[in-house]
Specification:
Layout lengths: L4 H19 L5 H20 L3 H23 L5 H15 L5 H25 L2 H25 L15 H7 L4
Helix pairs in contact: 1-2, 3-4, 3-5, 3-6, 4-5
């Protein structure tokens, strides 16, 4: 039987906190700080691991929705690199034999091609179209930021923690979920 990720992460945190940390010279503040950062990172990873695949799938679907909305608003297909990237995101998002890294890379390629496409549209757009496209992008960015804030909430660095959703709430609330 394969031990689960949660058990392995808990075991690493316990070993670091109960065995390694007490063995570190108390005068070596840099080593203690780094060890506490590693333990904190393991805590964050433990919070995120069950949702990493879901996060990437929602991220890809959100980028596809953005592409569709921008194409509708501009009145023409985005074509080329965007269409190829959408095909790739849809492909990796429906297969069982892909890694999380492959999904993330497909999402990144779509994000990059969308950046180029939107910049190209905005460079030649009339003010009304530019405003419409900008609003679409900002709305998508707000949704994305909410998911990202939830995903890293465990760091405790959020300026507005009262407005945070849990990771599953943020993912389920996304229009792309």
């Amino acid at each position: 039987m394969q031990p689960g990720f949660d058990l392995r992460i808990r075991s690493m945190k316990k070993a670091l906190a109960e065995v390694v940390l007490p063995a570190v010279d108390s005068g070596n503040m840099a080593a203690i700080e780094q060890l506490q950062l590693v333990i904190g990172s393991l805590n964050l990873l433990q919070d995120q691991i069950d949702y990493a695949h879901w996060f990437e799938i929602v991220d890809g679907r959100s980028m596809i929705m953005l592409a569709e909305k921008v194409a509708d608003a501009s009145g023409k297909p985005l074509g080329g690199a965007v269409d190829a990237a959408i095909v790739s995101v849809r492909d990796v998002g429906t297969r069982h034999d892909v890694t999380l890294t492959q999904i993330r890379e497909a999402n990144y390629a779509l994000r990059e091609s969308m950046t180029e496409a939107v910049n190209g549209i905005l460079a030649n757009a009339n003010p009304d179209l530019a405003k419409t496209i900008s609003r679409i992008v900002v709305d998508m960015a707000e949704d994305q930021t909410g998911r990202e804030r939830a995903f890293v909430a465990g760091t405790g660095f959020d300026v507005f923690p009262h407005s945070l959703k849990s990771i599953p709430e943020a993912l389920a609330a996304s229009p792309a979920a």
